[in-house]
Structures are given as C-alpha cells and as structure tokens.
Amino acid sequence: MPVPRPRFDLPLPSEITPRAVYEGRRDWLRMLAAGAAGSALAGWAARDALAAAPLPGKNPALPSVPSALGGAGAEALTRYDDVTGYNNFYEFGTDKSDPHDNAGTLKTRPWTVSVEGECAKPRTFGIDDLLKLAPMEERIYRLRCVEGWSMVIPWNGWPLAALLRQVEPTSRAKYVAFESLADKRQMPGVSRAVLEWPYREGLRIDEAMHPLTLLAFGLYGEILPKQNGAPVRLVVPWKYGFKSAKSIVRIRLVDAEPPTSWNLAIPREYGFYSNVNPKVDHPRWSQASERRIGEGGLGGLIAKRRPTLMFNGYEPQVGQLYAGMDLRKFY
Ligand code: MTE
C-alpha cells in the first residue's frame, strides 16, 4: 500500500493575529450571543455551506481557562487564516491547502456521534444535543504537528470526560477508540489508499478523561470550519496533532489498545502514545524544535525555530499519567 510521508512544507506567508483584533471578534460574539443565540441554532442548517459561523448556544462570558488548564497563556494566537488554510485532513487531500479548498462538500448536518462499547448506557447523540451537553468553553492550546510546525489556537468546546460520563463506562473500558467519517461521496481523499479509512485514533481511558482533553465544536468563537474537522473533533494538546481526530462519528470504549491509522500505516514512526517529546526523535528528523506558523522573516522563509517543550508544555498537568513508563519504548 502506498503510504504518504508527512512532509515539511514551506510556511504560508502570515503574521500573528494582534490580540486586539481577536478581542474585537470576541466582543462581536458577545453581542451576538446576547441578542441572537436562539435564532442562531435554527439558522445553523442554512449556514452549513458557510465556512465559519457563530457558535449557537455559546456562553457570552466566553470563559477562558488558558493558565489553569495549561493553555498557551500569553503566546500570540496563530492567524485565523493560517489556522483554517494550512491543514492536515487527508480525507480531502494531502496538500496543506487541500482541506480548505475541498472540504466544502462535507455535509455537517444532520450529524450523529455514537458512543458505544464497554459502557452501561451506549447512546447515539445528535449534534444539537452534543452542543448543549456541557458549557461551551474557550481553551487556548498549542497544537504541535509531528511534521515540526505548531500553532496556538483558541478552541471552543468542553472536556470529552463530560460525554464519556454520560454513557457510564464499565471497569473494562481501558481505552477509547475514535472514528472519523469516511464517505467517498463527500470526501475525495477517501478514494485514495493513502491511509486505511476510516481515520482512526485512540487514547487510554485516563488520557481521554483528563480535563485537558477537549471535544471541540468551534475555534475563534465560530463553528468549526470544515477543514478543521467540523462538526466535532478531538483536541489532545500534549500529543502530536494527528491524535486529534476530526469529524468524529463513532467513539468506542474498549478493553484493549485500539488500532490507529498512522500506526497501521508506519508503525516504526508513529506509536500509539505520540506524546510530544523533544527527547525522542522521529526516525527521520529531530523533534527538538518547531516552527510556529506565522513566525520568521520573509513570510516564514527565514525560519525561526523555538524549542519544543516536553508534553508540548503541558507536563505539569499530564506528566504523572506516564510515571514509570519508558517514553522511548512507548512513543
Ligand atoms: N483527522 C482526520 N480525520 N484526518 C486527518 O487527516 N490529520 C491529523 C489531525 N486529525 C487528520 C485528522 C493531523 S496530522 C493534524 S496535525 C491535525 O488533525 C491538524 O489539525 P488542524 O488542521 O485543525 O490544524
């Protein structure tokens, strides 16, 4: 099976979003949420074709928890255009611009997510029920791609643990398996055997229940753009970006480590854990440093690199999950 090699691409010319611009967006959202939250819900279906729309039912206070939960704090946010124009979503092609250019065909409504397996109350959730399941939060997280670039993204969502608690996992639920949609009619990349479809990912149950692990429905205060994994995706900020499965349709609680797409494709390069770790190199390149998208001179051509942090900077929050484990073996 021909397998794609993740590539180092030149960055898009870009700048950092000035915080004032971002704050301006939030003010606009606050006004919108105060006046039009109800009608926003009704209008979502009509807006499905739009790349970005305000989040319905959004908490106008936009609680931001960057420092308490290990967010990226004062780091500059990556420009919205880069967050939504430089993506990995192989169901829509393997170039960084393909998801932006091709994901318009993804139909995000109606949408259901089934949560099943080792649990007392398996259930299929409609996307509207999911949106209301827990208070919508804002989390500013670093995203570190295994290819060596990173972004700082303000996500909107709530902890995955809130969903898992609903189905009451049994004591046999040791892992959680995630499946993305794989529909050839909507996703041109699924006709190519670049990965085994559907895109599959997995977490250990304690990782899945960790308060940093987010189910995201939006970014920058807007409904998730399709190229970023609409209508619902995972965000696991201390792991390489590929652990954060997009456009999820099925979540299974299981008793054994589940197969994952990248591990099936190239097991020597991509392990199950995939924690961001500057001390464990990828077999073909160093993981010690990263290029923050939008940084560097001449539109990024003069690359400025910054050191990669252990667990992507979330070591105080998640380090103890791996106490006693050999992280070279469990990469
Ligand atoms: N999820 C699916 N279903 N398909 C993919 O190809 N790519 C992963 C991850 N989730 C991917 C996916 C990779 S490699 C990364 S780095 C992140 O999504 C990128 O997320 P972003 O495009 O929102 O930055």
Features:
19% helix, alpha+beta, 331 residues, Sulfite Oxidase, Chain A, domain 2, 7-stranded mixed β-sheet, disordered N terminus, 12 strands, 5-stranded mixed β-sheet, binds ligand MTE
Overview of this protein structure:
By secondary structure, the chain is α+β, with helices and mostly antiparallel strands. The protein has a single domain, classed as Alpha-Beta Complex (Sulfite Oxidase, Chain A, domain 2), CATH 3.90.420. It is 19% helix and 20% strand. It is built from 8 helices and 12 strands. Strands 3, 4, 7, 8, 9, 11 and 12 form a 7-stranded mixed β-sheet that branches. Strands 2-1-10-5-6 form a 5-stranded mixed β-sheet. A hairpin with a 2-residue loop joins strand 7 and strand 8. 46% of the residues are buried. The N terminus is likely disordered. The site of ligand MTE has 16 residues, from loops.
Give a short synopsis of this structure.
This protein has 8 helices and 12 strands. The protein has 331 residues and is of the alpha+beta class. The strands form 2 sheets. Strands 3, 4, 7, 8, 9, 11 and 12 form a 7-stranded mixed sheet that branches. Strands 2-1-10-5-6 form a 5-stranded mixed sheet.
Task: Present the secondary structure layout.
Layout: H1 19-43, H2 80-83, H3 98-102, E1 112-117, E2 123-126, H4 127-132, E3 137-144, E4 149-159, H5 160-167, E5 175-180, E6 200-204, H6 205-209, E7 214-219, E8 222-223, E9 233-235, E10 248-254, H7 261-265, E11 289-292, E12 305-307, H8 315-318
Parallel strand pairs: 1-10, 4-11
Antiparallel strand pairs: 1-2, 3-4, 4-7, 5-6, 5-10, 7-8, 7-9, 11-12
